[in-house]
Structures are given as structure tokens and as C-alpha cells.
Design brief:
Elements: E1 5-9, H1 13-19, H2 21-29, E2 33-38, H3 45-50, E3 53-56, H4 70-83, E4 87-91, H5 93-106, E5 110-114, H6 126-138, E6 144-147, H7 150-158, E7 166-168, E8 191-195, H8 204-217, E9 222-226, H9 233-243, E10 248-249, H10 256-262, E11 265-268, H11 278-285, E12 289-293, H12 298-301, E13 308-311, H13 316-327, H14 331-348, H15 351-364
Parallel strand pairs: 1-2, 1-4, 2-3, 4-5, 5-6, 6-7, 8-9, 8-11, 9-10, 11-12, 12-13
């Protein structure tokens, strides 16, 4: 494969580090010139030490306002004209949308990855209408778009936001060497963890209600919450639940592996917009049972009754029912369920599948 100039557009260090570092390392090892455009951060040194050339690019991660985001679009256009890269990879909403508008104008080859749509399309609003228009004039005309789940793909197709320029990926995949199976803790009742930003969209209300009910009935259970409090109104609530011993709030954890290792079950009560949730992939890879709301992406990972349980989105009673069902399992049945999850991710969600797919795209590019 000849040496290529590759530009990567991202909105944050952690998304590239957690889910794309294997691809980036391989691209550098193959002798390519890799440029990464994302907001300035001390952590970016990780990629510059790897051999990447960093381009500091401010990205406002909140909201979609074409007028406010005009400076980002102008930055991308200028960048692409100067670099003349062979191929561009983009991740998350704004790099996808404004990157594609810029690459369409500058005649660059860009591959976008729809890593999830967040709350944008969960209900009709001014924001969802603007987003539809922006996606239609951007990714629809780009070289290729990767989707992580069929639900997102179908939504884009039905709303004519995409042409025939799309393909499927198994989420961001999971590094099976990094996330290895470890012994399931053997406590009698159960230990659970919520991993994610503490906000309504992630289903924190259902998790807290479930923890309160289950803890009252099964005092030996443990419920952890790992993640930043995104919405201020939850600070007091989580603090109070923590004081009462209903939950154990541990904040954002850089080394989430060590916490997944401590528990039996990961709970993801999200309302949607997840792509394929990495917390489920990583938990399943470690032999942990997953209980998740029945949303696009989660349904791809969790086989109901086999690798974990699915419950009706937003329904605390159904979540409590599934948690009780899990508690009622014997240790051997829990272990069997966790190992079934590992087998599934090995077959379907190995990150190497994702890396190889991107490498094939690089090979196709002709100068």
C-alpha cells in the first residue's frame, strides 16, 4: 500500500483514544502521514508521540446552529485546501456534517461514521429539522457513510438523508485483548454499574428508581454510578442517594475496566441515540451480563435471556423486573450468561473488523 495523507476529524480526545487508537496506530505504522484535527488538549500528546500531526480545531460539542458553527466550517475548508489529503475520516455529529460540506466543496474523499445521533431525532423539534437539512446537504453527497446500527441507517434512508453511499460497521468494535474475560464476582445477590453521563437521556431516573426498590428488597446488592453529572439537577439527587447508601457514586473513571471487573452486571437504561454502546461491548467482552433498554444498538449487543436482558425503554418497573430475574439466577447461570456475551462480541464486534474495514478504504484511494 502506497503512502497516503490521511486527515481525521474529531470533536474530543477521549473518543479517538478510547475507540480509534488501534486504527490510528496501524495507519502510522503503515507509513502514512496522519493528521488529526480536534480541540486542543494536553492529552493530544498521546497521538503526537505516536507520530501524528495535530491541528488544533475548536469544536463546540453542544447544539447545532449553522451560524455559530460557520467558523468550524471555514476552518475545515481552509484545512482541506491546504492539506490536499487523500482521504478524510470523521467521527461524531459536527465533524461529520461540517467536514462533509467542506470536503464536498473542496472535492476531497471523506468517510463519515455515524457513531450515534444522541437526542437529536428522538422527537420532532427545530433542532431535529435543522439536523435533517444539514445531514442531507452534507453526508448524502459524501464519498461514504458508515452506520453502527440498522435503526440509524433505516432512519436516514427513510428520511432521504442518505443516498446509496453507506455501509455497516459493528459499532466501534471492542479490543478483545484489552478487555479480557475475568472471573465473575460470586456475591449472592448482585452488583450493578451504570456507566455514562448522568442525565435524563441516559435513563438515570430509571436506574435510581430501580436501585432504591431493589436495595430495599435485597440489602446485599450494590449499585454503582460511574460518570460525570451532565445535568445539574441530578447533583443533589445523586448525592442524596449516595448518602443513603442506595448507590455508590464513583464519578468519571479513566480505568473503567477495574470497575467492570468488580461487578456482575452492567445496566444501560438509555433512551436512544447510542450507535452501538461501547459500555455494553466492553462489559460483555469481560464476561459481564448486560441489562439494557430495548433501543437501536443495544438490541444488537444484548440477546434477551441469553447474554442479558432487554427492558422497555423508560419503564422502571420492567427494569426492576429484569434485575430481579437476574438476581434469581444461580451463580452458574449468571456465569454462563456472561460467557455467552463474550462469545457474541468475539464473533460480531471484534475491533479488528472495524480496523480492517478502514484499511481497505485507504487501499482503494488512488492519488
Amino acid at each position: 500500500m502506497g503512502k497516503k495523507k490521511i486527515l481525521i476529524l474529531s470533536n474530543h480526545f477521549i473518543t479517538l483514544y478510547s475507540f480509534r487508537k488501534e486504527l490510528i496506530r496501524k495507519l502510522v505504522e503503515d507509513g502514512n502521514d496522519v493528521y488529526i484535527s480536534m480541540p486542543k488538549s494536553d492529552e493530544n500528546k498521546f497521538f503526537s508521540d505516536m507520530g501524528c500531526k495535530m491541528i488544533d480545531t475548536p469544536v463546540d460539542r453542544r447544539g447545532i446552529n449553522p451560524f455559530k458553527d460557520l467558523s468550524l466550517l471555514c476552518s475545515y475548508i481552509k484545512m482541506m485546501k491546504e492539506l490536499k489529503s487523500d482521504i478524510i475520516f470523521s467521527y461524531t455529529v459536527k465533524p461529520n456534517i461540517y467536514g462533509c460540506i467542506a470536503s464536498n466543496l473542496t472535492k476531497n474523499v471523506q468517510i463519515s461514521n455515524i457513531t450515534g445521533t444522541g437526542s437529536t431525532f428522538l422527537k420532532k423539534s427545530v433542532v431535529s429539522t435543522i439536523a435533517k437539512i444539514l445531514y442531507t446537504i452534507s453526508v448524502k453527497k459524501s464519498y461514504k457513510v458508515f452506520f453502527q446500527n440498522n435503526g440509524d441507517k433505516d432512519y436516514f434512508v427513510q428520511n432521504k438523508m442518505i443516498a446509496n453511499n453507506y455501509a455497516m460497521l459493528p459499532g466501534s468494535g471492542v479490543n478483545l485483548e484489552q478487555y479480557t474475560v475475568c472471573d465473575l464476582p460470586s456475591e449472592t445477590d448482585g452488583s450493578f454499574i451504570f456507566i455514562g453521563r448522568v442525565m435524563e437521556l441516559k435513563g438515570i431516573d430509571q436506574y435510581l428508581e430501580c436501585a432504591k426498590t431493589i436495595k430495599n428488597k435485597y440489602p446485599n446488592t450494590t449499585f454503582y454510578i460511574a460518570g460525570f453529572v451532565e445535568e445539574d439537577r441530578y447533583k443533589e439527587i445523586v448525592d442524596e442517594y449516595n448518602k443513603q447508601g442506595i448507590v455508590n457514586y464513583i464519578g468519571f473513571q479513566k480505568n473503567i475496566k477495574s470497575w467492570i471487573q468488580k461487578i456482575q452486571c452492567t445496566v444501560l437504561p438509555s433512551y436512544g441515540g447510542e450507535g452501538v454502546p461501547n459500555v455494553l461491548l466492553e462489559s460483555a467482552a469481560m464476561g459481564r451480563i448486560c441489562i439494557a433498554s430495548s433501543i437501536n444498538g443495544s438490541k444488537d449487543v444484548v440477546e434477551d435471556g441469553i447474554t442479558g436482558y432487554l427492558f422497555e425503554t423508560g419503564n422502571s418497573i420492567d427494569l426492576i423486573d429484569k434485575v430481579e430475574k437476574f438476581i434469581g439466577l444461580s451463580y452458574e447461570d449468571k456465569k454462563k450468561m456472561g460467557l455467552a456475551g463474550r462469545v457474541k462480541v468475539e464473533k460480531e464486534f471484534d475491533r479488528q473488523i472495524v480496523v480492517d474495514t478502514y484499511l481497505r478504504e485507504v487501499e482503494k484511494v488512488v492519488k
